[in-house]
TrEMBL record:
Alphabetical list of PANTHER family matching this protein: PHOSPHATE-SPECIFIC TRANSPORT SYSTEM ACCESSORY PROTEIN PHOU
Keywords from the UniProt entry: Cytoplasm, Phosphate transport, Transport
Boundaries of every PhoU domain copy: 21-107, 124-209
Annotated spans, Disordered: 222-245
UniProt KW Transport keyword: yes
Gene source species: Bordetella genomosp. 4
The protein's name: Phosphate-specific transport system accessory protein PhoU
Record's subunit section: Homodimer.
Protein family: Belongs to the PhoU family.
One cellular component (GO) term of this entry: cytoplasm
Length: 245
């Protein structure tokens, strides 16, 4: 590529990275606002989430189109190609995080419009905080190309899964002990499940960051392997076994 083409490519690539981080910031706000609306029934927050979801969808389309143009114009190689492929995959997960946040907001609207009085007492904020931190750390690891932080997100998904199972057990107990809580408890199950899915999508994105930086596909291989790949330990072991280290 000529110097001019190189500069244009760098600008296009940076634009993709910047837009994706902006998209992530919007999704972070959606999660926070949807969870804040649960105890209060604040419909202004619910509407904010619904409006932000449209913004997230626009980001997805714009970034996807930009990636397609970069691939067609510049035919990137190596790390730049991995960046584009990683962001392309991460886009889907980020958009689905926004969808899950909107589901929470819609569930809150339904709960308060139905005026359900019998509210099962369940702590959802800690789970929401854990999921929000995972998403924030994914964006941070992507911005700084930090595979070790990304591997920590993969590890943290296990804790969110445990919290989801605990919440489900508690809600089932409430429904068995007091049938008046069944309707609201089912709504809370939907909310907890949406948070658990956001955690899954954050984990998927974290795995993509590891792939981007290390070139290693750590999907379905477990948190321990993700951590070893992120630290570069697997590459070192391979080099030693080949007499290269």
């Amino acid at each position: 590529m000529t110097e001019h083409t190189n500069k244009q490519f760098d600008a296009d690539l940076e634009s993709v990275r910047s837009q994706f981080l902006q998209m992530g910031g919007v999704v972070e706000a959606m999660i926070q606002e949807s969870v804040d609306a649960i105890p209060t029934g604040d419909m202004e927050l619910v509407e904010k989430v619904r409006e932000r979801e449209k913004q997230v969808n626009r980001f997805e389309v714009e970034i996807d189109e930009r990636i397609g143009l970069i691939l067609a114009r510049h035919q990137p190689t190596a790390i730049d190609l991995r960046t584009l492929l990683a962001v392309s995959k991460m886009l889907t997960d980020m958009e689905r995080c926004g969808d899950e946040a909107e589901k929470i907001a819609n569930t809150v609207r339904r709960m308060y419009e139905a005026d359900q009085r019998f509210m099962p007492v369940i702590e959802i904020r800690h789970m929401a905080a854990s999921v929000g931190r995972m998403l924030h750390d994914v964006l941070d690891s992507f911005a700084r190309l930090d595979p070790v932080l990304a591997a920590q997100v993969v590890r943290n998904d296990k804790e969110v899964d445990r919290e989801w199972k605990g919440a489900l057990r508690n809600l089932i107990t409430y429904m068995m002990e007091d049938p008046r809580t069944i309707s609201r408890a089912i709504d809370m199950v939907f909310i907890a499940r949406a948070l658990e899915r956001i955690g899954d999508h954050a984990k998927n994105m974290a795995e993509r960051v590891i792939y981007l930086v290390r070139g290693a596909d750590v999907r379905h291989t477990g948190a321990k392997n993700a951590e070893r790949q992120a630290r570069g330990e697997v590459e070192a072991e391979t080099a030693e076994s080949n007499g290269e280290a």
